[in-house]
Structure formats: structure tokens, C-alpha cells
Design goal:
Layout (H helix, E strand, L loop, with lengths): L2 H12 L1 E3 L8 E3 L8 E6 L10 H14 L4 E4 L16 H7 L11 E3 L3 H4 L3 H5 L1 H6 L3 E3 L3 E5 L2 E5 L8 H4 L14 H18 L4 E5 L14 H6 L1 H6 L4 E4 L5 E5 L6 E5 L20 E5 L3 E7 L3 E8 L4 E8 L4 E3 L1
Parallel strand pairs: 2-7, 3-4, 4-5, 5-6, 8-9, 9-10, 10-12
Antiparallel strand pairs: 1-2, 3-14, 7-8, 11-12, 11-13, 14-15, 15-16, 16-17
Length: about 325
């Protein structure tokens, strides 16, 4: 058995899978480090068989993962281009994932949500246990929770929220087999999310989705998320919302709550100079980069540190906040 295969087997042993019914989302438990800290990398919009600098970003992720003593990886969706996977036996899975993220530090669990491009293929394929037999790092569900003790992460399937995908598909076909009714699906998801958020005792609460709530990138804000999802986040003390979709790196703050909006959608092809010409409060925009890269996050009981890196591994932006002092700095 290869070293990589052995590491992946260990992952399946040490990560606890807990299925919860009665209105709560499925949960996964990540054991804490001995010092109680949690560290992970966030990457989005990446799966291009190594092209558009995907392999170079992956290399830098591996170096950073070693430095921060990585616990797991978060993928914000659009995992496989251009149109997701065509089946659970699609070679693109290994060509864009297993064969790319080979660094020892990245042989940890990958928690992934679906993006709109993933829905253009066989969305069910990415959720299949067959992929976990191929590479046991891979965990992709529609919506779920990762409990890392002091940090709890709530992964939300945001593609079904976006109404234009049903009415203005631009020639694309979306896999709506699990979404027979947009309104009932979204209503049920929001109800389950709210139950999970209200029951959370975590020091830090993070919500992860594919689409942006706040963005000056190509796609801009997602109206449906701001109207239907954001109020629930505000009511339940969520600290951070992490997303992809716009192919950039970005940090914005909310104007009337402590929530920070963090975009990490630069895992491969980036959109240089493609900025959405919307009116935005300049005080809300903390950082924007239209090149390739990724983001890391480290949490302790009192502090959170968010760092954005470019394709060369250089630090572009660092944000630190403290729960004890209720003070943040850029």
C-alpha cells in the first residue's frame, strides 16, 4: 500500500461520521489538536486537470498546509469543470483531484459543497460513496455540519437558491433530481440549518456555500441568499461566511453585523480585471485580488486568523480578530 493510500485509510478511521435525523443536518466530527486549535485551507473553483495554474496552487497549498499543521481542507464548490462529473467513474475525479493534491499535508479530509458547474453534470456522482472508495479524503454532500469542537462549520447547498438557474439556464442542463421543487427544498434546508445553528455551542460558527452574499467580483451579490439565508446567519451569531463562485480572493464585512464575507474561488482559472460595477460602501471592502490563490484559517478559543495567498504562496492579506477583546485588525 502506498504512503498516500495509508494516510487516506487513517482518515477514514479517525474522522467520525454521525448521521442525525429529526430536522438536523448530517454531522462529521473532527478531533481537536492537543492545544485545542483548528487549522484548515479553503479552496474553490479548482478542478481543471491541473491547468490554469491549478497544479501550482496545489503545490503552494501543500507547503502552507505543513506550516499551519493542517487539520482538513474546505472546498467551496465548482469542484470539476466545465460541467461537473458525468458519472461516479469519470476519470476527471482523479485527474483533477487525486493526482493534483498530492502533498503529504493535504492527505486530510476534504469537505466539499456543490457549485453551479457541478450541478451541470451528474450531481449525484460527487455525493457517491464510490468516490470515497477511490479517494477516501473526499466528502461531498449537499448540506452538512463539521464539528471541530471550538469551531462548527455549516455547509449549505446554495445552487438551488438561485432562481435564474431554473428560468435562464443559458443552454445548460442542471441536475435537479433531488430538487423537485425549489421553494420546498430551500424552505426545508433553511429550517434544518436554523435548527443546527441554534443548537450549536461552538465558540466560532462558520457557514460555507458556493455563491457569494457580498462580492464585487463578476457575479456580485446573490440576491436570494441575502434575502433568505443571511437573516438566519445574523440571528444565530454566525462569525464568517465562506464562498467561491467568483474567481478571486476577497474579504468584505457586513455593514450592520459582525459577519465577515470571505471569498476563495481562485483555485485555477481567475478573471483578471473582471469587477462588478456595483455601488458598495468602501468601508465594507477589506481586500480584493483578481488572481489565483487560496485561503487559510486558524482558530483558537480566543482568536481567529484568516490569511490569503497568491499562486506563489505569498501572503496577500491577513485578518485577525479576538473574541475576548471584541476587536479586529487588518
Amino acid at each position: 500500500m502506498s504512503t498516500t493510500a495509508s494516510l487516506c485509510l487513517l482518515l477514514s478511521i479517525f474522522t467520525t461520521f454521525v448521521v442525525v435525523s429529526n430536522g438536523e443536518l448530517q454531522r462529521f466530527t473532527e478531533p481537536a489538536k492537543s492545544d485545542g486549535s483548528v487549522s484548515f485551507i479553503v479552496i474553490g473553483d479548482w478542478g481543471r486537470r491541473g491547468s490554469f495554474n491549478q497544479s501550482i496552487v496545489a503545490y503552494q497549498m501543500g507547503k502552507t498546509g505543513e506550516k499551519i499543521d493542517l487539520d482538513f481542507v474546505v472546498s467551496t464548490g465548482d469542484n470539476f469543470y466545465d460541467n461537473g462529473l458525468f458519472s461516479e467513474h469519470d476519470p476527471n475525479f482523479e485527474q483533477s483531484f487525486s493526482n493534483i493534491y498530492t502533498a503529504p499535508s493535504l492527505q486530510k479530509q476534504w469537505y466539499s459543497v456543490l457549485g453551479n458547474h457541478d450541478y451541470r453534470g451528474d450531481a449525484e456522482a460527487q455525493l457517491s460513496s464510490v468516490l470515497r472508495e477511490i479517494d477516501s479524503r473526499w466528502i461531498c454532500l449537499r448540506s452538512f455540519v463539521v464539528d471541530a469542537e471550538l469551531v462548527e462549520m455549516f455547509f449549505v447547498d446554495t445552487t438551488p437558491f438561485v432562481k435564474e438557474y431554473y428560468t435562464e439556464a443559458d443552454g445548460h442542463t442542471y441536475d435537479w433530481r433531488a430538487v423537485p421543487s425549489r421553494n420546498s427544498y430551500v424552505k426545508s434546508l433553511l429550517r434544518d440549518l436554523e435548527v443546527s445553528l441554534k443548537s450549536s455551542k461552538a465558540r466560532w460558527k462558520i457557514v460555507v456555500g458556493h455563491h457569494a452574499m457580498r462580492s464585487i467580483g463578476h457575479h456580485g451579490d446573490t440576491k436570494e441568499l441575502n434575502e433568505e439565508l443571511l437573516p438566519i446567519l445574523k440571528e444565530n451569531g454566525v462569525d464568517l461566511y465562506m464562498n467561491g463562485h467568483d474567481h478571486c480572493l476577497q474579504h468584505m464585512s457586513d455593514e450592520d453585523s459582525p459577519i465577515q464575507f470571505l471569498t476563495s474561488g481562485a483555485g485555477s482559472k481567475a478573471w483578471r480585471g473582471d469587477i462588478n460595477p456595483v455601488t458598495i460602501n468602501p468601508k465594507s471592502l477589506k481586500f480584493y485580488y483578481d488572481g489565483q490563490g487560496f485561503m487559510s484559517a486558524r482558530f483558537t478559543h480566543s482568536d481567529a486568523e484568516i490569511v490569503f495567498y497568491d499562486v506563489f504562496g505569498e501572503v496577500l492579506h491577513k485578518w485577525v480578530t479576538s473574541k475576548q477583546l471584541l476587536h479586529s485588525s487588518v
